[in-house]
Amino acid sequence: MPPSPDRRYTAFEGHDHLAAGPLSEVTLAVKAAEEQGVAGALLVFDDATGHVVDVDTRGSAEDILARLAAPAEPAAPVKAQVEAPAAPRGRGRPKLGVTAREVTLLPRHWEWLQSQPGGASATLRKLVEEARRRDRDSPRQARDAAYHFMSALAGDLPGFEAATRALFAGDGERFDTLIAAWPPAVRDHCRKMTARAFPVPVAR
Length: 204
Prior knowledge:
This protein is an alpha+beta fold. It has eight helices and six strands; from the N terminus they run ββαββαββαααααα.
């Protein structure tokens, strides 16, 4: 499916910052860099996870934007069925999909879900989305994302292993000291990605 407009990406040419923003803007910037000729490797990172993502720069700018806007091949939707003890199942094919997955709940859980506005399914979806948002904003998620980025782009830089240990130890001051001599674009992106990783803000 088309990338979320809220999701942010960052492209690097070697250790230099190239572009940041939605995937469409970053992909076009990568294409322009390829056409101009680049000295270093071009890598695009998902800011939320720190993982490298592949971008397709074939064709014109219009071709690229059309591919990114096109919906993916539809997959069979999945419905999680919440079973109420001793409650009869409805007949017929589920509206939301053809593959059922069971969720085991105690009677009190079922009663609470059924009392919520929208019923059990809507409440479960809301709870899952809220948990996903909390996870994205958690210090652990920030540390993991920063580690993925550092491993891909800073693994050969001095102090990488010590900086990694400081990152997972939650030692923001030591981490900041260890990356201070790194190429400015890499250092600054690490600081941005670790803003939520440490219990106290790192002095800049």
